[in-house]
Specification:
The complex is a heterodimer of chains A (139) and B (131). Chain A is of the alpha+beta class. Chain A has five helices and five strands. Chain A has one domain: Ribosomal Protein L22, Chain A. Chain B is globular and about 40 Å long. Classes of the chains: A alpha+beta (139), B mainly alpha (131). Chains A and B meet through helix 1 and helix 2 of A and helix 2 and helix 3 of B.
Chain lengths: 139, 131
Amino acid sequence: MPQPPPAELSFRVGVDAIRVQRLQDVIAGDFHRRAAVFTEQELEHCRGRRREYDHLAARFAAKEAVLKAFGTGLRRRMRFTEVEVINEASGRPRVELGGAVAEFARGHGLHQLDVSLTHTDGLAVAMAIAVWERPCAST
Amino acid sequence: MADVDSAVKEAVVEALALDDDEVTPDSTIMNDLGAESIDLLDILFRIEKSTGVKIEASDLGDYIQGGIPDDEFSDDSDVITAKGAEQLAKVMPQVDPGEVEGSLKAEEVIGLFTVQNLVDMVKSRAAAAAG
């Protein structure tokens, strides 16, 4: 049975844009750099796709957007790989959190998190919305 | 290992496509020089390549907070506490603890991180690695 929504919800949005070429310049051809930013599943999803770096850049923007929606940036111990963008069978992206980012989300009462990605003309953009079950320091 | 001061400056200049004289030790990397997260990654990757000192983006926040838990570094409104301000003055000596305590938000701290602060961090990491 669906749970009633918590009495008090607050939300915060985050948005980020990145030039695809900029990301490519920084991480192309270097496994360690790619692995510092993306999970293996993210890399695998984008590998071999037409416009691979457009997809990676959109994911990078999503990570940034989520951290902005959390109001944290890369606070202590938080890693880019702890915000993982997964594509459902429908193609809709969703975010899996890990490590210090997941710990922050749990500790601050994250109720729901959603992202939307796009890329066009060499620019990748993502938006995230985080809904919290109680007023959060960051919201 | 390359001279750390020069290596850090070169990394910042090249990553941000700036002129040499635009980057001074007192320049804040994000607020003054306009670096974004991808630029910060680029700077750290370049420093690793030239000095061998590996610093992840997540290490910056860790270095700044110095092991102080989040809820002691900043209050419920995310504003820096006295303890947090004291820590900031250790790793970012240009920061006046009296000015930031009770007014600066934790998420704004990284914007005040200077080229010199990064040099100091790289030197600290290099020294720790050397034992």
